[in-house]
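Worked Example 4.2. Consider the chain below.
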Amino acid sequence: MNRFLGLGTIAALAASCALAAPAQARDHGRSVSAYGPHGHGFSRSRSVSRQPGSVAVSRSLQTADGRGHSSSRSAGWGDGRFSGSASHRLNDGRSFGRSRTITAHDDGSYGYAFSRSGPNGGQRSRSGTYRPRR
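Applying the procedure from the previous section yields the following structure tokens:
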């Protein structure tokens, strides 16, 4: 069943690359901070950048007692290719993330490459070619 879900994901992403409407260039962000009388509180921020064929989002959350994380995600598409990635970093120094790339070939097949890294150093990747039945 996982194989069919993976192949469905590849087909859906490839179709969205072909049918994606042009995006308007736009950047925006927001920051919020709240602190109470006993030193408790947080600060968070988010920024988004959209360009034709790409989007990038960054987020951060920090608490008054030193806990928190930051993350960034990005995606790009066009000319029969999609690539996306996400990375996360915790205040204790650990980080983890994932990336994927899907490319449409002239013969109707799709090439894909997925990778993932964990906060404790583990890493997995998979790549290959999907050829739909005709």
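The chain has one domain: 2-130. The helical segments are 2-19. Compare this with Example 4.1 before moving on.
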